[in-house]
Specification:
The chain has about 425 residues and is α/β, with parallel strands linked by helices. It has two domains: about 20-195, 3-Layer(aba) Sandwich (Rossmann fold), CATH 3.40.50; about 210-430, CoaB-like (Rossmann fold, 3-Layer(aba) Sandwich), CATH 3.40.50.10300. The chain contains 14 helices and 20 strands. The chain has helices spanning about 40-50, 65-75, 90-95, 110-115, 120-130, 140-145, 150-160, 185-195, 235-245, 275-285, 320, 330-340, 365-375, 415-425, and strands at about 1-5, 25-30, 50-55, 100-105, 135-140, 165, 170, 175-180, 210-215, 220, 225, 250-255, 270, 290-295, 300-305, 325-330, 350-355, 380-385, 395-405, 410-415. The two termini are about 25 Å apart. Keywords: Decarboxylase, Flavoprotein, FMN, Ligase, Lyase, Magnesium, Metal-binding, Multifunctional enzyme. Pathway: Cofactor biosynthesis; coenzyme A biosynthesis; CoA from (R)-pantothenate: step 3/5; Cofactor biosynthesis; coenzyme A biosynthesis; CoA from (R)-pantothenate: step 2/5.
């Protein structure tokens, strides 16, 4: 049985989103916090993608960033009050016409006002009018974020379908450090776009522990050289980010990843280099997990010998460069399913593998993935057809999610965060 999943299946029924890159109407709300300056980067991100951006700040936000800055970046007039452009009924139309509303930063005060349905300024009124996805990116001191009043407000908003992102952990105003930092603008933009494409942020994984491997492994030849692959870690990090925003406790075991990847809010990262290091860390954490997703591109082989110093041309070591003897690395995915079958780890652990396949003249990438699924004894296998300009390092992904019970879910080309949401929609149904 084959089930096709695409970006339109999950669009909220009350609102029809426009096509990506076709001039979507996006409202960027800005509340009065020191992180208001980061909204400038968010506005530029949306504008460079071809979106129509209207900035709606609060009066307090203008104490941090001036009105002229927001107008210059968005190309649209800026107002804070419901009494401007009354003849246009602006306090109604801005929210009605929006394809997305994203507020960054969302302060404790703004969250409280939205929770209670206030409409005492243009931003609150716009949110109250909205039928499109609404995404709030909190930023405040740790004590404010953890206060029972704020947490109760956040729970209420989430129960109403408003997306309240988890704040980042890091340096706050002054010398304080802790949860409450605004996520990076690029993270907010990516997650907001995912929400607009119907990805769920429903807290359905609250209390669950998820272990995810990401990136490529590096197998050293000498202190300078290594054998590796083109994996960027983007799909693994996207899975971690969506899972964390659904309430899961996420641990990422990361190999070599792109430098511009940001730590998903609330996730823990363990950095490794080689396949054997990844094997050790997976073995250490797998028994405490409800779901394991092996999204890393793990090297199948490693050099049999690692030189202690750099091997140079014209030296005795040159022969070692010309002929590299390889030995097999441990099969991490198969080790997990074997341990599950023998009772070494919980039998209800859900295991998801990834297969980067190319196919050949006789066998398709999908058929190779079917064989691998049986061989690895995983519950699911995500098959990606890789090649020049495909998957590795790219912002988008697609493929087939195979189930051990025979279902094949086709996941159409989309941003990797959207793909992550589609994968988690399917595989987490098996978590008890």
């Amino acid at each position: 049985m084959r089930i096709a999943i695409n970006a339109h299946n999950h669009t909220p029924p009350s609102h029809t989103a426009t096509t990506l890159g076709s001039g979507r109407n996006i409202v960027v709300g800005v509340a009065g916090g020191i992180a208001a300056y980061k909204a400038c980067h968010l506005i530029r991100d949306f504008k460079e993608a071809g979106d129509i951006v209207r900035v709606v700040p609060t009066e307090a936000a203008l104490q941090f960033v001036g009105k002229a800055t927001f107008e210059a970046l968005s190309g649209n007039p800026v107002s804070t009050t419901v009494f401007d452009a009354v003849d246009e009924v602006r306090h109604v139309h801005v929210g009605q016409q929006a394809d997305l509303i994203v507020v960054a930063p969302a302060t404790a005060d703004l969250i409280a006002r939205v929770t209670h349905g206030r409409a005492d300024d243009l931003l609150a009124a716009t949110i109250l009018m909205a039928t499109c996805p609404v995404v709030l990116a909190p930023a405040m001191h740790t004590e404010m974020w953890e206060n029972k009043a704020t947490q109760a407000n956040v729970d209420i908003l989430r129960s109403r379908g408003i997306v309240v992102l988890e704040p980042a952990h890091g340096r706050l105003t002054g010398t304080d450090t802790g949860p409450g930092r605004l996520p990076e603008p690029s993270q907010i933009a990516t997650l907001a776009r995912a929400a607009m494409e119907g990805v769920l942020f429903d807290r359905s994984l609250e209390g669950k522990k998820i272990l995810i491997t990401a990136g490529g492994t590096r197998e050293a030849l000498d202190p300078v050289r290594f054998l590796g692959n083109h994996s960027s870690g983007r799909q693994g990090f996207a899975l971690a980010e969506i899972a964390a925003h659904r309430g899961a406790e996420v641990t990422i075991i990361a190999g070599s990843i792109d430098n511009d990847l940001h730590t998903p809010s609330g996730a823990r990262i363990i950095n490794v280099s080689s396949a054997r290091e990844m094997y050790t860390e997976v073995h250490r954490h797998v028994s405490e997990s409800d779901l394991v997703i092996m999204a890393a591109a793990v090297a199948d082989f490693r050099p049999a010998h690692q030189a202690e110093s750099k091997m140079k041309k014209g030296s005795e070591a040159q022969q070692a460069l010309e002929r590299i003897e390889l030995i097999e690395n441990p099969d991490i995915l198969r080790a997990i399913t074997t341990a599950r079958a023998t009772g070494e780890i919980p039998s209800d652990l859900v295991v998801v593998g990834f297969a980067a396949e190319t196919g050949d003249e006789n066998t398709s990438a999908l058929e190779f993935a079917r064989i691998k699924l049986t061989k690895k004894d995983a519950d699911f296998l995500m098959c990606n057809e890789v090649g020049e300009g495909k998957v590795f390092g790219q912002p988008k992904n697609s493929g087939f999610l195979l189930s051990r019970t025979g279902e094949i879910t086709e996941i159409e080309t989309a941003d990797k965060h959207v793909v992550a949401g589609r994968i988690l929609d399917v595989v987490t149904q098996k978590i008890r």
